Structure formats: C-alpha cells, structure tokens
Amino acid sequence: MSLKSVNDILSVLQKQAKWQEQPFQQVCQYWAEVVGVIIAAETQPLSVQRDVLRVATSSAAWAQNLTFSRQKLLLKLNEKLSQPLVDIRFATAGWQYHPPVVESESTVNQHPSFLGDLADDVYDGKVAPINQDVNQVFQNWAKMRQERSQDLPLCPHCQCPTPPGELQRWGVCAFCSVK
C-alpha cells in the first residue's frame, strides 16, 4: 500500500469533478477570456437554461450590439465548453452595478501630458485648510500651476509651457495639436 500526498489526491478529485462541472460554471470561467476585458466589464452571465445562455448587460445599447455578434461569441465560447450552447440572449434585466476597474498606474503614466504625482506639490505636503475662501483657493492653485510649469519646455507654436511628452509625441502642445 502506497501513501499519496494530499496534492495528488486533490488533483485526481479535481480531474474527476471536471466532467460533472455545470455548463454555467464553465461559462463564468471562460467568459472574460472569450469576450474580452471591456465587454466582460459591461456584461454578466446569469444562467444557462435549455442550452441557452442568458447574459445581463449594463445598457440596452450593449445588449443590441452583442446580439448582432452573438454567433461569433457563441462559436468562441463553444470551443471552450464541454457541452455546447445553442444560443445567447442579451438583456438589461438582472444587471447589477460593479464598481469600475481602476486604471493601473502604468496606464496613466503613459499619457503624454503626465507630469508626475501632484499630491505632494499642492500644499507642500501640508493638509489644505478647510475654511479658505474661494479667492485664496484660486491663488493657491494658480501659484502651484505656475511653479509646476516653470521648468517645462515651451510649445514652438503658442509659447505656452508644455509637458515634454506632448512635444515628443505631437511636436506642439495638446491645444495646438487639436487646432
């Protein structure tokens, strides 16, 4: 009699349970991979009944757009599932709000206008006084903007201080590039 480790036993049990896995569990497992991150954020698989997948969408516009591409999604999804689906139905019924995904810091830092973290510059690391009047708040903001833009290169077109990323990308500031 040989003794097996707990990991070996768990892996055997997991493999045996795969064939018993419900279609809806499989759909939930592969949904984001099949539809993509953007669509997955706006949709929620609700149930599988009679081989038809019901999916809640965040808006009627999403439901309509996804209905037009449901055959393509169905083919991709059926490649991953052990028991194929017949159809997908999209509707706003059953949608529950999920907080938006916070952008990673690396995504924000890639924007050409990004100058760095403003949090420490605003009040030189001090907490802002709550009982300031509007004029004082504006003066503080204007002073901070002037200090931050002091060392920036100038736009060759309008001579305004411009983040280096904008000059590198467009050759001019964002305002001039829009014109």
Structure report:
The structure is a single chain. This protein has nine helices and three strands. The protein has 179 residues and is mainly alpha-helical. It has helices at residues 6-18, 23-35, 37-42, 60-68, 70-80, 105-109, 134-149, 164-170, 174-178; strands at residues 43-49, 52-57, 87-91. Mean pLDDT is 79; it is low at 119-123. The longest helix is centred in the C-terminal third of the chain and has 16 residues, at 134-149. The protein has two domains: 19-91, DnaA, N-terminal domain (GMP Synthetase, Chain A, domain 3); 116-178, no CATH class. The protein has a three-stranded mixed sheet. Helix 2 crosses helix 5.
Q: TL;DR of this structure?
A:
The protein has 179 residues and is mostly helical. The protein is built from 9 helices and 3 strands. The termini are far apart.
